[in-house]
């Protein structure tokens, strides 16, 4: 991290970070003897999707709760568009949309009633609430289920309702904890498109997710955390430039291995339903050249594709270093 600079209000902020979006600087939070978060730094700029990545127990949800002003840090600072939640709590909460990993309470209320009540909590103009609620239900494809109690909704439908609840007051910062959990493949694609649209509207979007393979298409950057600390910040472009692992299979495995050895490439044999090898390639051009060389050599390639996303590759490398 770069050196901190003092702000006019006495808070401290990483140098180079503006007032847009949401920032945590050296935040810590303990629960008894458990240090859930220790001196963690995080920044999600406006107009971008920032992924929060780490193993279970790394402190992701605790950090999100502090960012959402639902949990006060023991030390360090959080600022939302330059505002400190401890001094401007009401204004900060109006700017934040919070989507937890489960819908939570109010299962006896209908989807329409839940969104209507949330709109009232945020003191939206009374006359415009019905239209706003209908628009949000349609946006998350729950218009046909608007008057059904939340308890009858599937896990995926409840996730979409939770997203609508987070967006009802048009926040400028959106915090999403495992938003793709329970969604079918089609809904995941829709979520990906919606998050990119929200970022394009100027919102700061934070996504904590274990579905790393999809984050390359959603996130502009990622903050990797482990054991309560932030350990790496990386843009998606930087992750892609570091290379990714490709999986290759052929009907003649011996011919494939021989050609890879001839080319001087290091590979490993992968266990699975179909015999395959994997190797690290630096970019798409390298992948295209290798595929061409294999085909011209007469190797009967049956599949050739990335074995992981770029951010997933970074995560796995960090996991290997940790172990």
Ordered list of secondary-structure elements with their pairings:
Elements (H helix, E strand, L loop, with lengths): L3 E3 L5 E3 L7 E10 L2 E11 L4 E5 L6 H8 L7 E6 L8 H7 E4 L11 H11 L7 H11 L15 H13 L5 E5 L7 H16 L3 E5 L3 H7 L2 E6 L2 E7 H6 L2 E7 L2 H10 L5 E3 L5 E6 L2 H13 L4 E6 L3 H13 L1
Parallel strand pairs: 5-9, 5-10, 7-8, 8-9
Antiparallel strand pairs: 1-2, 3-4, 3-6, 10-11, 12-14, 12-15, 13-14
Low-confidence stretches: 1-18
SSE order in H/E notation? EEEEEHEHEHHHEHEHEEHEHEEHEH
Summed over residues and divided by their number, the pLDDT gives a mean of: 88
Strand order of the largest sheet: 7-8-9-5-10-11
Oligomer: single chain
Radius of gyration: 23 Å
Largest sheet: 6 strands, mixed
Quick structural overview:
The chain has 11 helices and 15 strands. It has 323 residues and is of the alpha/beta class.
What does this structure look like?
The protein has 323 residues and is an alpha/beta fold. It is built from eleven helices and 15 strands. It has helices at 60-67, 89-95, 111-121, 129-139, 155-167, 185-200, 212-218, 236-241, 253-262, 284-296, 310-322; strands at residues 4-6, 12-14, 22-31, 34-44, 49-53, 75-80, 96-99, 173-177, 204-208, 221-226, 229-235, 244-250, 268-270, 276-281, 301-306. A six-stranded mixed sheet has the order 7-8-9-5-10-11, with helices on both faces. Strands 13-14-12-15 form a four-stranded antiparallel sheet. The longest helix is centred in the middle third of the chain and has 16 residues, at 185-200. The protein starts with a strand and ends with a helix. The model is unreliable at 1-18 (pLDDT under 50).
């Amino acid at each position: 991290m770069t050196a901190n600079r003092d702000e006019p209000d006495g808070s401290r902020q990483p140098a180079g970070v503006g007032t847009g979006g949401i920032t945590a600087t050296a935040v810590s939070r303990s629960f008894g003897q458990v240090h859930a978060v220790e001196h963690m730094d995080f920044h999600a700029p406006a107009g971008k999707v920032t992924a929060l990545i780490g193993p279970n127990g790394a402190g992701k949800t605790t950090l999100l709760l502090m960012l959402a002003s639902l949990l006060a840090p023991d030390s360090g600072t959080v600022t939302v568009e330059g505002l400190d939640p401890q001094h401007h709590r009401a204004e900060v909460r109006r700017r934040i949309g919070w989507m937890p990993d489960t819908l939570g309470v109010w299962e006896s209320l209908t989807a329409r009633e839940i969104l209507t009540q949330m709109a009232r909590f945020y003191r939206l103009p009374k006359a415009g609430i019905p239209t706003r609620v209908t628009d949000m239900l349609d946006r998350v494809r729950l218009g046909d289920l608007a008057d059904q109690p939340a308890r009858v909704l599937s896990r995926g439908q409840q996730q979409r309702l939770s997203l609508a609840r987070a967006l009802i007051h048009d926040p400028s910062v959106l915090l999403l904890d495992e938003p793709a959990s329970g969604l079918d493949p089609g809904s995941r694609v829709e979520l990906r498109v919606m998050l990119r649209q929200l970022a394009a509207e100027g919102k700061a979007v934070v996504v904590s997710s274990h579905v790393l393979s999809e984050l390359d298409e959603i996130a502009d950057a990622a903050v990797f955390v482990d054991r309560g600390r932030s350990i790496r910040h990386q843009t998606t472009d930087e992750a892609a430039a570091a290379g990714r692992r490709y999986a290759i299979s052929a009907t003649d495995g011996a011919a494939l291995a021989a050609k890879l050895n001839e080319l001087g490439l290091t590979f490993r044999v992968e266990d699975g339903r179909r015999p395959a090898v994997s190797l690290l390639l630096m970019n798409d051009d390298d992948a295209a050249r290798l595929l061409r060389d294999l085909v011209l050599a007469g190797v009967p390639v049956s599949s050739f594709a990335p074995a992981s996303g770029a951010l997933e590759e970074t995560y796995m490398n960090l996991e290997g270093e940790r172990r």
